[in-house]
Recover the amino acids of this structure.
């Protein structure tokens, strides 16, 4: 039940989860797991899914970049930058003069110069506040794409909003898949024993193209894929002895 559900390959009958099979799978030695080749099959499946998501993310980034307002936040800065710099120069000059007057014993003049410098400092702060407010306004309309899940959010979203997105199923699901994929790539699981190898090599491809074969999803395949379906809690397949 996420926005990515449509990316899953068609499967008929539906996938099943079996706690007993998961428990049995967990009790297998690594050598026994390698014989089935399920982890290699999961590696291939996850590579396919993550690659497709990355392609979609890049396409979304292009679309979002076209919708954003590039440079608008920076366009306002040159309009006031000269004023701000001029105020800085004046403030510095007044402060130097005030210090000099103080050293010469001209206390009243020194205080007057410092007071004038404070007024200019307030003007500068007001201008800088206007620039920042404008920048935040533009950023609120500017969108960014999450590199993990493809979710879109405002560039200046607070940490609480980002945390909310990261707690959602879309982000958690893709983060888990990416983490598991990295783990399997490091592990480099084998394809499995010859009696299982043909299943492992072809399952993902067949499921992706199932709708193009006579008979629709499932394709009337007779090579033993009926009741043995992927268990997404254990990385295995019900009916084929692993989880």
């Amino acid at each position: 039940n996420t926005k990515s559900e449509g990316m899953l390959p068609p499967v008929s009958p539906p996938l099943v989860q079996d706690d007993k099979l998961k428990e049995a799978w967990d009790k297998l030695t690594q050598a026994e797991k390698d014989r089935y080749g399920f982890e290699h099959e999961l590696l291939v499946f996850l590579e396919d899914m993550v690659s497709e998501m990355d392609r979609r993310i890049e396409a979304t980034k292009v679309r979002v970049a076209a919708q954003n307002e590039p440079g608008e936040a920076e366009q306002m800065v040159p309009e006031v930058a000269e004023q701000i710099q001029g105020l800085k120069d004046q403030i510095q000059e007044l402060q130097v003069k005030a210090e000099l007057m103080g050293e010469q014993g001209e206390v009243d003049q020194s205080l007057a110069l410092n007071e004038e410098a404070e007024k200019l400092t307030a003007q500068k702060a007001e201008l800088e506040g206007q620039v920042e407010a404008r920048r935040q306004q533009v950023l609120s309309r500017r969108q960014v794409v999450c590199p993990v899940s493809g979710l879109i959010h405002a560039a200046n979203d607070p940490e609480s909003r980002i945390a909310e997105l990261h707690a959602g199923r879309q982000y958690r699901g893709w983060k888990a898949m990416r983490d598991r994929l990295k783990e399997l790539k490091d592990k480099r699981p084998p394809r499995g024993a010859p009696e299982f190898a043909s299943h492992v090599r072809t399952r993902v491809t067949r499921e992706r193209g199932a709708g193009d074969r006579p008979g629709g999803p499932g394709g009337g395949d007779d090579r033993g894929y009926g009741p043995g379906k992927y268990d997404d809690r254990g990385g295995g397949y019900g009916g084929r002895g692993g989880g």
Summary: Residues 107-141 form the longest helix (35 residues).
